[in-house]
Amino acid sequence: MWLEISRSPSAEPGLWQVELSLEPSEMKSIQGRAPVRFELPVLPGQVFVLDPSFQSLADPFMTGRIVHGVWRALIRTVGVEPESMSHARRVLAQHINAGILRRTRGREATPD
């Protein structure tokens, strides 16, 4: 998986872009079972802002949805140091991997 959290120099303060692309091997493991839902982590001082196409229909505020191997979001931060975004990336990657694992094992209850 390629997962990047970055901040554009022209972006407003506290606004970060998140981009995810699954590797071909990960896409193969979920073949025929996309999109993949995953639980968004709760991170102090950080709020995910999702485009409707990447929100889960079942729980649009706490669940992300990987569509065709891609997921994008924004993170709004308040009082968060830029260095803590590496922690946010690690935690988000753990949640995404758990969602992929649930999907490959057929444990995802209600696909979108």
Provide an overview of this structure.
- This protein is α+β, with helices and mostly antiparallel strands and 112 residues long.
- The protein has one domain.
- The chain is 23% helix and 29% strand.
- The chain has two helices and six strands; from the N terminus they run ββαββββα.
- The chain has helices spanning 24-29, 85-104; strands spanning 2-6, 15-21, 36-39, 46-50, 63-66, 70-77.
- The strands form two sheets. It has a four-stranded antiparallel sheet with strand order 1-2-6-4, covered by helices on one side. Strands 3-5 form a two-stranded antiparallel ribbon.
- A hairpin with an 8-residue loop joins β1 and β2 (15-21).
- It starts with a strand and ends in an 8-residue tail after the last helix.
- The mean pLDDT is 87.
H/I helix tally: 2
Major beta-sheet overview: 4 strands, antiparallel
Distance between the termini: 21 Å
Q: What structural class do the secondary elements suggest?
A: alpha+beta
Give me the oligomer status: single chain
Number of strands: 6
Radius of gyration: 14 Å
Beta-strand content: 25-35%
Q: Which segments are poorly predicted (pLDDT under 50) over 5 or more consecutive residues? A: none
The general outline is elongated
Total separate domains: 1
Average pLDDT across residues? Answer: 87
**Helical content band:** 10-25%
Order of helices and strands: EEHEEEEH
Strand order of the largest sheet: 1-2-6-4
List the helices and strands and how they pair.
Layout: E1 2-6, E2 15-21, H1 24-29, E3 36-39, E4 46-50, E5 63-66, E6 70-77, H2 85-104
Antiparallel strand pairs: 1-2, 2-6, 3-5, 4-6
